[in-house]
Amino acid sequence: MTRFTIASFNVKNLIGADKEYYKFQSYTPEEYAWKVDWMADQLLAMDADVIGFQEVFEEKALREVLREAETRGNELNAAVIPPKNKRYHRKAIFKKLGFSGYKDAALAFAANTNDTATPGQRRPGVAILSRYGFSGAPEIIQDLDEPVKIPLKELGGESAGYFEIKRLSRPILKAKVPIDGQDITVFTCHLKSKLGEFITPAGAAFAVEADLNKYDPMGRAMGAMRAAIRRMAEAWVLRREIVAELRAGNPVIVTGDFNDGEHAVSSEIISGEVPFKNYAWMLRHDAQSPRDRYSAEQDLAIRKNMQEMRLTSAEKLFVRKSLRDVVYTTAFGGVYESIDQIYLSHHFHPDNSKKLGEMEYFSVLNDHLTDGSHPEAPYNKLASDHGQIMAHLRLGLEND
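Now predict its structure.
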């Protein structure tokens, strides 16, 4: 039996000092030092074995954060872990007080192919850190070998054309993490945000909808719709990769910033359908009479197939287990919600009699979150605007 932790950490615009990542936005050396300091403390508090990172512009900056966390972890260990000549050094509590470190951990970084390194127009990537290393080379999914074409149909039956996507707004990073002899496929993603996607006319300096002095409510609504369509298309691409892994019999964990809540369509695309409790009442797809319904055997097969392709929110498993509902990872406009997720395949579901393991606990670091609505916790642009979430998992059963 092996216990491990996996986390998701949207770091909010990690890049070195004096580098303009978005228009007129950069860090002074002092601000960058503060951000490195804050992130190192968060990593020390989490002490996670596997972490999916989002909004990383530079691998170099992330490695600097990891080095700082390592330095602090070593100092912490020297202070709290007794040497072997102390008679009490075997106490179980010291296993919890120490920091395991990332000196020998593997880091995979996926740069964003939309990033041209032009100051003020940078685009962030994602990363996965693993104390267990990786089985094979991690895979980056962003530029699609074959464009995804989503055909649309008018209500009258004729074609309404199709939506096509050739490149994702940000990369999806896929890695196989070997834990106790079992490869677990880990994805981290950062789906398209809810910010409107506006089109700048040829020769113009900016999109018409961007001029708030000439507020265009319908144009901005269209921009929000474009963003939603893109987010759902990216969710479908991720779902395709997940299903391929599940069909191959591989356990899957997905981490990342979904930019949507658990019950949004995009999130449900990723997780898969929730099966009905019974399909025996339903008319068959080829019904010729009111009596043509699925049999009891077909009902079992349908639900089994759906469950094997489903992912479950680690947060919701925790809430169900603990009878609490206190998790949130973002704060905006006075609304506190979860858009950062860890999804687990059926291999970790407590109701699965053939599970490989299960989640024991779920934690979130969100005390730093505020959108400025509360004067006692003013907004800080240097800390992340996301909470960090972590699932505590056990691979193998107690009686193994």
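Residues 2-272+309-395 form a domain with the Deoxyribonuclease I; Chain A fold (CATH 3.60.10.10).
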